[in-house]
Amino acid sequence: MTTPETISKQMHDALLALEHANERCYRAEMQFKQARCEHIDATNEVNNAQKTVDELVIGIKKTAPYGTDWKHDRSSGHAV
User: Residue 46's beta-bridge partner residues?
Assistant: First the structure.
């Protein structure tokens, strides 16, 4: 038989469990947001580094000796 005391105890335990679960969910959400920001920052850093490498390769190709693959622009068929 369920008594008012039993129901009260069960409700108390359920509310504590809910409070704990809400706190855990909030912490996980904050960690997720932080990780997402860090990922965006890291991706931007990679993109900037790639852009620098691309620009350097363009410069190397412009100074390549005549007749080499790098001096020859394969997309247009003309020398750079």
Answer: none
CA 37/CA 25 separation, integer angstroms: 18
Q: Which are the contacts of 72, defined by CB distance < 8 A and separation ≥ 6?
A: 78, 79, 80
Structure confidence by residue, pLDDT tens digits, 59-72: 999 999 998 998 87
Distance CA 3, CA 20 (A): 26
pLDDT above 90: percentage of residues in the chain: 78
- In order of 7, 30, 41, 51, 67, the CA distances from 47 in angstroms are 59, 26, 10, 6, 32
Domain limits for position 47:
4-79
Dihedral of alpha carbons 71, 74, 76, 77, sign = positive
Number of folded domains that form the chain: 1
pTM metric for this prediction: 0.64
